[in-house]
Structure formats: structure tokens, C-alpha cells
Amino acid sequence: MVSHVWYVVSLQGMVDYICRMRTSFWAKNENVKNDFVLDFNKILSVPEGMDIPFLQTTELSYISYCIIHGIDIIETTMTAERKKFLFMNYLKDRNDLQYCVFDFPSYLNYCHKESKFGINLNIGKQYMENKANYGFGTASEWCKEYWGTRGNTLNGQDMSVSKFGFSLRGNDVPNKIFEKISERYPESLITIRYAGEIAGVHSGVLQYYKGKKKLDIEYSMSAYYRYIREGRQLDKESFKKTSLEFWNTVKGCMGVPFSVEKNFVKEYLVWQEEKRLQAEKVREQKRLALLEQAKKQ
Prior knowledge:
Elements: E1 4-12, H1 15-25, E2 26-28, E3 36-38, H2 56-69, H3 80-93, H4 104-114, H5 121-134, H6 139-146, E4 155-160, E5 163-169, H7 175-184, E6 189-196, E7 203-209, E8 212-218, H8 221-229, H9 236-253, H10 264-296
Antiparallel strand pairs: 1-5, 1-6, 2-3, 4-5, 6-7, 7-8
Helix pairs in contact: 2-4, 2-5
């Protein structure tokens, strides 16, 4: 399940300066009446032609297009096992063809015509052109590199002249977007507070001034343990309390119901323990496999 993160952005500076900032990156939300959102495209726009889905079938289409036209495949995010999927299904489904296929390219053309395995050679061609021109096949991949997150804002909330909110899908923080805004408007101190769906897992505060990050504090239990490893002296109960208060403040600004009754620390620690036990299990399996191999030798 994809999570969502809520952001509250505060701008400090002269009112007319802040108004110029807001109008430069503010856009009408076509999905909600009288709603405006922070539009990342107003800050750094996605190149044209990249509006194809970020799916495994997209890379499958790209690989198929390259095979058919004898083009070298540029590195993809698909695993080697996934690439073998094409050939395995070729062998499995040969008897289902209406005509006899003796070569792989012909089979891939057949898959395109019959929409088998999600193969679409038109999408494959566009993906190839995008990778050649921009280094990335889809908008999602490009956005992750240049925005810091895979997608644009989902909605907006205008709180005052100098404060607004929005939400994003996924836990990636759009640091590069805020850095670009700060570079463009260096006289404003930009403070970003964010909070995920579950308290104690993904929340924090960022601050930018003159294009530089001035503050980066994460309020989560994972951050607490990282701070401890770094040698910081923190009281756990006090940190938990501060984290929950911060999380509730951000969610409250966005009009999202509080979840104070959730023991978020307990949930997080249970998850950590399960992760540790799973890692131990994997290590033990590797150890036994090595012992078995040594016996055979």
C-alpha cells in the first residue's frame, strides 16, 4: 500500500516578495474547485513525451522494441531474472500461436499485436527515445532524479499568505524542489514540516535559505536510533513525546484526524524486531548452506 505524506510550508520575508514567490509556483488544481497547489512543473518542468507509465511492462516493451530492431539495450532497472521472463514465456506459449514462429523478434511482434504480457512497441519506442534524450524512460524516473520524489503534489491547502500545505504519494521528500525555490528566492527563509500517515515513522522539519539547507531534523524512532549511534545524548521518552506532538501539529494543520491513541513507538519496535529476526534467519540459512557445501568437498 502506497503511503501519503502531508507537508506544511512556511515562508518568511517581505509580503510582496512572498506573493511573487507564491504566484510563480502556484497552479490551479483541476480536480478540486477553488483549490490551488504547489506545482513542481512550475519550478522544474518534466520534458515532453515522458508521460508513459512506470511499470515493468514498460521496460518489457522497451526491451522487446530493441530486440526487434537490433538496438543495444541501455541499462534498465529490470532485474536479470525479469528479462529472462520474455524467453521463458516464448518457449511456453509457442504452441498457442496461430502461425509457426521460428525467431524471437516475430514472436515479440505477435505479443504486441495480441497485447500479450503488456507488450506495447509504441511505448517501447518512446521509452527508448526518452532514455536517449533525457537519461530516463519515464516521468517517474526523471522526477525521482530531479525533484527528489516520483510525482507531483496531490492537493493543496492555502492557510495564509505565508503558509500553505500539500500532500505527496510516497515517502520521498522533494528536497531538490525546495532547494530550487530557495535558489530562485534567496531572501526568504523556507521552513518545511512533514508528517506521514503513521506517527513515529516518517516526519520531520527542513529549512532552506539562500539555496542551502540550514536545518534537517527527523522526528521518528528510526531517526532516534540513528542519532544515538552518532553519539547524541537523547532521552527516549522525551524524544517520543516531542515526535508525537510534532506529528499531531503537522497533521492538525492539514485537517487530518489525529491518531494519538496509536502506540506508534510499540508498532515501530515490533517491526524492527521482526526485521532483525528475518535477517538472522537468512544468515543462519547461509551458514548451513556453506557447511553443507564444505562437507561435500
